[in-house]
Design a protein that fits this description.
Transcriptional Co-activator pc4, Chain A; four-stranded antiparallel beta sheet; alpha+beta; 128 residues; five-stranded antiparallel beta sheet; globular
Length: 128
C-alpha cells in the first residue's frame, strides 16, 4: 500500500507530511530527503497553519540575526521548525537534533497563500 502524502512545494523545496494519524514530516531539497520526525497529524498541520497565519512575538531567540518563534519540535528525529520574518515575508528554519540549521526557506506571499489553502483543505478533510 502506498502512503498518501501532503506536499507543500516551492522551487527545489518540498515539505512533505504523511496522511496517517502519526504524521511523518520530511523535507526534500533539490532531491535530497531529510526525515524531520513525527507527531500527531492534526497537531503538525495546525501548528504549520498557525505559523503561517497568526502573529508571533518572535521571542524564541534569533537565527542569523532574525528573531524567531518555534513552530514545532517533532518526535523521533527531534528536528525543530522555527519561523521568522524577513522584509514582511515568512521564513522557515529547520534545525536538526544536534542544533544545526539544515535549511532556511523564504516564502513569497503567493506561495504562502497556496500553502495556507492546502493546509486548510487537509485539516478540514480530516474533520469530516
Amino acid at each position: 500500500m502506498t502512503k498518501q502524502l501532503i506536499q507543500l512545494k516551492l522551487n527545489e523545496f518540498i515539505l512533505q507530511f504523511s496522511e496517517e494519524e502519526w504524521c511523518e514530516v520530511t523535507l526534500i531539497i533539490s532531491g535530497q530527503s531529510h526525515y524531520l520526525g513525527a507527531d500527531s497529524r492534526n497537531l503538525v498541520l495546525q501548528r504549520f497553519l498557525n505559523g503561517f497565519t497568526k502573529d508571533f512575538d518572535f521571542s524564541s531567540g534569533k537565527i542569523n540575526g532574525v528573531p524567531i518563534s518555534c513552530v514545532l519540535t517533532l518526535f523521533e528525529a527531534h528536528h525543530t521548525i522555527y519561523l521568522g520574518e524577513i522584509d514582511g515575508k515568512r521564513c522557515l528554519y529547520f534545525q536538526d537534533g544536534d542544533g544545526q540549521i539544515i535549511a532556511e526557506v523564504l516564502l513569497p506571499a503567493s506561495d504562502l497563500s497556496l500553502w495556507i489553502e492546502n493546509l486548510r483543505e487537509h485539516i478540514k478533510a480530516s474533520e469530516v
